[in-house]
Every structure is written in C-alpha cells, then in structure tokens.
Design brief:
Number of helices: 4
Mean pLDDT: 83
Distance between the termini: 38 Å
Number of strands: 0
Number of domains: 2
Order of helices and strands: HHHH
Helix content: 40-55%
Low-confidence stretches: none
Shape: extended
Radius of gyration: 16 Å
Strand content: under 5%
Length: 90
C-alpha cells in the first residue's frame, strides 16, 4: 500500500483554517503520518465504533452513525443530519 508521501497534495490556504482546526490536523498528522494505508485501515477497524464489516465490499458510513458513535444526543444528530440534507439539496 502507498504511504502518505506518495499521494499528491495541494497547498492549503492556512489563513482559512482556525487554530483549533490546525491543532486537530497536527494531532492527526502526528498520529497517522508514519502509518501505511493498511495500518490505518486496521486502526479504524479496531478503534472506530461506526465501522461495520461489509462482507468484503464497502458501504458509506452515514453522518448519523458517526455522530451517534461519538455520543452526540439523538435530538442534535437529527438536527445536524437535517441541516446536512438541506445544504446538499441546494
């Protein structure tokens, strides 16, 4: 599998990213940048509750599933998914 260095990247306009978002990105890079793709997949399968085995295939994980897996209250999840669907329809 490819390592992160083998993918083309575009320069990000950092002035459009908040300090909080920069901290999140720094943490992600620190944790995962030295892992291979296979190692990241294995990590996801072991640590992310929203991942489900798809019998050798794949399927998208819904926003609702991700939010609920992160202990977001159901009422808020419903509002967020409603907002997402609204903006997708524009």
């Amino acid at each position: 599998m490819k390592n992160i260095e083998s993918y083309d990247t575009q320069e990000i306009e950092l002035s459009e990213i908040s300090e909080y978002e920069k901290d999140i990105l720094d943490n992600i890079i620190e944790k995962f940048s030295l892992m291979t793709t296979d190692e990241i997949v294995q990590y996801a399968h072991e640590h992310l509750d929203e991942w489900k085995y798809a019998n050798g295939s794949s399927h998208p994980i819904s926003y609702e599933t991700i939010l609920l897996s992160n202990n977001i209250p159901k009422e808020l999840v419903n509002q967020i998914t409603s907002d997402i669907n609204y903006f997708k329809s524009l």
